[in-house]
Amino acid sequence: NAGVTQTPKFRVLKTGQSMTLLCAQDMNHEYMYWYRQDPGMGLRLIHYSVGEGTTAKGEVPDGYNVSRLKKQNFLLGLESAAPSQTSVYFCASSPGLYNEQFFGPGTRLTVL
Amino acid sequence: AQRVTQPEKLLSVFKGAPVELKCNYSYSGSPELFWYVQYSRQRLQLLLRHISRESIKGFTADLNKGETSFHLKKPFAQEEDSAMYYCALSGFLSGGYNKLIFGAGTRLAVHP
Questions:
Q1: Reduced to 3 DSSP states, what percent helix, strand and coil does chain B have, rounded to the nearest 5?
Q2: Which residues of chain B fall short of a pLDDT of 50?
Q3: Which of A18, A26, A34 is nearest to A76 (CA)?
Q4: Contacts (Cβ under 8 Å, ≥6 apart) of B24
Q5: CB atoms closer than 10 angstroms to residue B78
Q6: Tell me, what's the pLDDT at B50?
Q7: How high is the mean pLDDT of chain A?
C-alpha cells in the first residue's frame, strides 16, 4: 500500500496563477484533511472532508477550495495564488473519529 | 478556545541526557492527545497517543488533566531522536467532527 500520496512534490507559481494539489489514499479512509505548515505556526487545517462528496472549512480556508468527488481523492485548489500561500502543504487521512491521522509527504509551494 | 502550546521552539541536549518536551493544552472537555514526529526529509507520523499508554522508542507521555499538560519524556536521548515534534489535540470541536489542533512544534537536537 502506498498510503497517502501527494502530487506534485514541488511547485513554483506566479501571483495570480491557479493550481490544484492532488491527494490520494488507498486505505479506504473516510476522513481526509489538508493542512499548511509554516515556520513557528505548526500545522493549520485548511479544509477537511468526512466522506465522499462532503467538504468543510478548517482554520484557514480563505483562498482555497476543495473537492472530494471520489473517496480516495481530495483535491486542494488555489484559484488565484498569492505570496502568502507560500507554504508546505500536507494531506492526511484517518479512518474515523479519534483515530490516528496518516500524512502524505507534503508539497512545497512557492508563490512569487 | 481550543489551543495547544509548545513553549520551546528548540531543545538542544547531549546524547544520553534526559529529554522533556513540553505541551500544554486548552480544551473544554475530554481531549484525545497525540505526539507526532517529523524526522528530516520524512513525513509526519504518529509517535504516541495518550489513550494507548505505551512507550514508543523510549518516549512516554502522561496526561495531567489538572495542569492540562501532556509532556513528552525520554530518560536518555539518542542522536536519532533529533526531529521536529508536534503535540496535537483532537476532540469534538465546533461542527462536531474530529479535528487535530497542532502546537507550533519543538525541534529536538541531540548532540554527540
A1: 5, 55, 40
A2: none
A3: A34
A4: B4, B5, B7, B67, B68, B69, B70
A5: 13
A6: 84
A7: 93
Predicted local distance difference test score (pLDDT) of residue B51: 76
Q: Cα–Cα distance between A55 and B39 in angstroms, integer? A: 30
What region does B68 belong to: left with phi over 0, alpha with psi -120 to 50, or beta? left
Which residues of chain B from 25 to 84 reach within 8 Å of chain A, CB to CB?
Answer: 32, 34, 43-46, 49, 51
Instruction: Please state, in angstroms and rounded to a whole number, the distance separating the CA atoms of residues B109 and A84.
Output: 29
d(CA A50, CA A19): 23
Beta strand residue intervals within B40-82, DSSP E? 45-49, 60-64, 69-74
Interchain contact, B34 vs A100, CB within 8 Å: yes
Smallest CA–CA distance, residue B90 to chain A, in Å, is 7
Q: What are the tens digits of pLDDT across the range A90-109?
A: 999 998 766 789 999 999 99
Q: What share of chain A has pLDDT > 90, as a percent?
A: 85
**Distance (Å) of CA B75 to CA A44, B14, B58:** 31, 12, 8
3-state secondary structure of A42: strand
User: Does B103 contact chain A (CB < 8 Å)?
Assistant: yes
